[in-house]
Amino acid sequence: MSCPSETPAPFEPYRVKAVERLPNPTAPEREAALDRAHYNLFQLRSDEIRIDLLTDSGTSAMSDRQWAAMMLGDESYAGSRNFAHFEAVVRELTGFPHILPTHQGRAAENLLFSTLCRPGSVIPNNMHFDTTQAHILHNGGRPVNVAAAAAYDPDLEAPFKGDVDVPSLTRLLDREGREKVPLVMVTITNNTGGGQPVSLANVREVSKVVHARDIPLYLDMCRWAENAFFVREREPGMHDWSIPRIGRAFFDLADGATMSAKKDGLVNIGGFVATRDPHVAERLNEAQILFEGFTTYGGLARRDLEAMAIGLQEATELEYLEHRIAQMRYLAGRLQAAGVPIFRPVGGHAVYLDVRRFLPHLSEEELPGQALVVEIYREGGIRTVEVGSLMFGKEGNENGRSLELVRLAVPRRVYSAAQLAFVAETVGRVYARRNAIRGLRFTHRPERLPHFTARFAPLGERVSTAP
Question: Which CATH number applies to 27-60+318-458?
Fold first, then answer.
């Protein structure tokens, strides 16, 4: 699971049929862009970015099969044949009988939590991601992270650091009771905790615990195929199983799922929520029609449903997944060769920098993660994202443990090995001058999801109060 410096460049199992010119902003242009964006990289324009590793969500390159399928869009408001194909594919992969398309994953979260979460509800998860946490809070609930202790040790080499701490979950459920816990969620892979996989054995245990208390189990399955790859690679007895078979074993243990198909659906827009419960499905249907559109299109053009159906199948191909994981290991190996501290082992969609070891001289109040993403952009025009105290605050961290990370999320089928080597070289130069990096302070901090729209300034710099 380690990433030695001699990690070979991965062979891309595809060839390029169209190209997009990369911007190349100069150092003064990057500095001006940071100032205009108030040091928040979400506010940069795409033409100000050389390599964009902000997210792997909706940034993938679609295949020729997906683009061809877009021409088969049946844009009927109700009963589109594209929905029928999409529904059949999702039902075959997951076994869930009730499937409602949405325009993206957070829309699926909105439907699920606005339906099941009420003021005072407690929602456990291995680790909630940003919008999942925010939807629970928006509906008056309390998100609680119950990841195993290994999840909080960035340097520990362990195969399934995304696992749920089952004894902690059991104590929480017994303390809160069935009436306060409308569902338990497990995120596969665990994005908040370094993109780490969850074992099938662990979800079997979770399923027994929650179903013994008549509590439904839902999966956040947006990176389920990558999770299945790690299960196949690392879990005893799984090596001969196909990716769809492993995925189905997870889904058979659950009562439903939310999905952002912008990850392991290989599309630029789309998602769904699925459930086994017909009564929950009826309530989800009502909310979907109100917020997303009719139940056979869910806020999407029907051609997007067709592309999503094909992308969900392509994401299960072993050759694709082998290259996907090899890209992460290649990038991680180059970073480690430069001495850069990363979260180990490497996950499936990103490499995470360990901010506390990268910038030990900066306190949490000095926003070290945000300071680091600014410096990486300043050095080479690379956009990354903070995944730590800025993004999550103190919500859910009842055990007092937390991570301070910067995520380098790699879009699927987009960047070459040479471009990833450029990323590693850029981060290595920042690491070499790390002791000179200073922190940031807020000049505007929203109450919810501050990382998207907050404004910052370098410490010691005077800032105008004008908007």
Answer: 3.90.1150.10
